[in-house]
Design a protein that fits this description.
Layout: H1 5-17, E1 30-33, E2 39-42, E3 48-51, E4 76-78, H2 84-87, H3 90-97, E5 100-104, H4 105-113, E6 122-125, E7 130-131, E8 139-144, E9 150-155, E10 161-165, E11 170-175, E12 181-184, H5 194-201, E13 205-209, H6 218-229, E14 233-237, H7 249-256, E15 262-263, E16 271-273
Helix pairs in contact: 5-6, 6-7
The chain binds zinc ion (ZN).
Amino acid sequence: MFLSSKRLLSLIALLASLIVSPGALAADIEVLWLGHATARITTVEGKVIVIDPFLKKNPKTPEKYKDLSALGKVDLILITHGHFDHVADVSELAGMTGAKVVANAELVRQMAALGKLDADKIIAMNKSGTIMPVGDKVKVHMVPAEHSSSLVLDEHADGAPNLVTAGAPVGYVIEMENGFSIYHSGDTGVFGDMQLIGRMYEPDLAMICIGGHFTMDGSSAGFAMAELMKPKMILPIHYGTFGLLKGNPDQLKQALGSADIKVLDIKPGEAVTF
Ligand SMILES: [Zn+2]
């Protein structure tokens, strides 16, 4: 059987829209999951956004990406909250790439005051705010998360962490040049306004924490997505990194039941393209 060149091209486009490894067929938008809550998102026009960089000490990050230069150029870094497993590599990555850093006002100003970030590079904002920090076509919305936030400075002599306030935890919705929207939950429990986020931004892809203990597990995340947010696709994150984070994609799929939501069950270091 022969395929016409047009049909062959559409077949290639279809394959490119499925899960592929980084560096495979080019596509409009790429989401590279690097383990835990860390992701590198490339927009339609090639802007690169990194969320919650935790790579060098992340047991699930592929060895290649423990060298931060493997991320390539980075235009923007989004931080959801101040906990170590979300900010560990922010300072170094921002320093080496010159990327602007977005976070809740208290967190990002605190980091600048502590010398962890260049004050000229921070974008302090808050929940319900919308910015367009990488051109005038990509919108970044800061949305609520139900969690806590602090920044560890060092340890007291007795070994207790020396914490400072880091404002409220948040999530993000990124609206791409072509309207495709991505929700990143940060760390959160289930909250009723997930329904509001779903109605306002209609996420095509929801990157959601499912590890449990500190956040939703697969079961509660499945309930939240099926009953409240209703995204088209889910990329589960923030699970399996440490022993306490026992939630898993199978729990999530079971809890989603017959909901019309596709789970992109990929491994750290793999990418999805849209
Ligand atoms: Zn976390």
